[in-house]
Amino acid sequence: MLVRPWRRATIVASLIAAIELVALLAAGVALVGKPLAHAVRKQAEVQALAPPKKKTVPAIARTVLPAIPKLSRSQTDVLVLNGNGRTGAASAEAARIHGLGYMIAGTGNAARHDYASTVVMFRPGYHAEALRLARDLKLKIVGPLDGMKTRQLLGAHLVVVLGVG
């Protein structure tokens, strides 16, 4: 069997190159790693000890003003509809709303009697008035007219549809 010296020399040279590569990587980590770790630690300390930054409000949020009602309570007409199926619920709630200073345009039954929550709906342009009425009644759901046309409102600006809850 003939052993060729160039194969042995190639294997030895490759092993020496691999050992040199590992040695260079270890030296690089030792030389660069310590200062880099120190710089990262220092930056983390600076950020941890810095006073909290003020939260910036987007420009669009700064320009939007709270809605101010155009109509007073006594000028705001409300239609009260029974959406829960209980007899007399709309009349009782209309009396309560009238006691808060609102005008009652009328009472009646909603198209459905399965509303889970009481809803305040508004005609276009009367969102601020709807928010005020919802706040007065301690309600959370306010939205535009849904499933109703303006001509069905008997001249009312707002609609309260009574729900079960």
If you had to describe this structure to a student in words, what would you say it looks like?
The protein has 165 residues and is an alpha/beta fold. The chain has 4 helices and 5 strands; from the N terminus they run ααβαββαββ. It has helices at residues 5-49, 59-63, 89-99, 127-137; strands at residues 77-82, 103-109, 119-122, 142-144, 158-162. It has a 5-stranded mixed β-sheet with strand order 2-1-5-3-4, with helices on one face. The chain starts with a helix and ends with a strand.
Strand percentage, roughly?
Answer: 15-25%
Number of strands: 5
Structural class per helix/strand content? Answer: alpha/beta
Count the helices. How many? 4
Helical fraction equals: 40-55%
Q: Report, as a whole number of angstroms, the end-to-end distance.
A: 97 Å
Give the overall shape, derived from the CA principal axes: elongated
Q: Return residue spans where pLDDT drops below 50 for at least 5 consecutive residues.
A: none
SSE sequence, one letter per element? HHEHEEHEE
Which keywords apply here?
44% helix; 5-stranded mixed sheet; 4 helices; alpha/beta; 165 residues; single chain
What topology does this entry show?
Blueprint: H1 5-49, H2 59-63, E1 77-82, H3 89-99, E2 103-109, E3 119-122, H4 127-137, E4 142-144, E5 158-162
Summary, kept brief:
The protein is built from four helices and five strands, in the order H-H-E-H-E-E-H-E-E. The protein has 165 residues and is an alpha/beta fold.
